[in-house]
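step 4 of 6: structure.
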Amino acid sequence: MKSVTRSELINILNTKLSDSGLLKSDISLSVKELINTMSSAIASGERIEIRGFGSFTLRERKPRMGRNPKTGESVALGIKYAPHFKPGKDLKERVMDSIKNQ
Amino acid sequence: MSVTKTDLAEALYMDVGLNKCEANEFVDAFFNVIKDILVDGNNLKLSGFGNFELRDKKGRPGRNPKTLEEVAIPPRRIVAFKPGQKIRDTIETYAGSRTQ
């Protein structure tokens, strides 16, 4: 599958918002601002809810016993946190529909 | 309270200096463009944040857990988010400060 990068996303937004009067530098800064705002919200345990797109939450992973793969020694691993994305209804349905039309 | 599109637009207004109308338009366009990219069958690598990846799941026989009736689960495509290193580091810092 092809991947779209951050700079390509900025180009697409630049085309899409060409009537808005925003400069490409504004768009690039705005993308950065959204990424930073969302990252710190998730990291501080706040839930992000974007209707039709999805939600981001911070999930707790229980502490567990791990093993050093080299020595075979047991090591205690503490609680870990990992971001989780749950796709929203509209995104889920449109992505599903897209494989029907292939 | 969840962070919503309104809060993200507020951040663009306060920190980037877009006016309120531009800020709302930008936030809408941002999520709509990401959606379109995924619907078109592309993954998105958003450096500094993470990757949105499409995963194709094979169809399989399933069961309605309530009625125990057998139902075929058709092939599906789902969106998965793989957080990037930067956000994982930010979380580490936060988790560290919380347990101290």
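step 5 of 6: annotate
 - The longest strand of chain A covers residues 54-61.
 - Chain A touches chain B through 62 residues (CB under 8 Å).
step 6 of 6: archive
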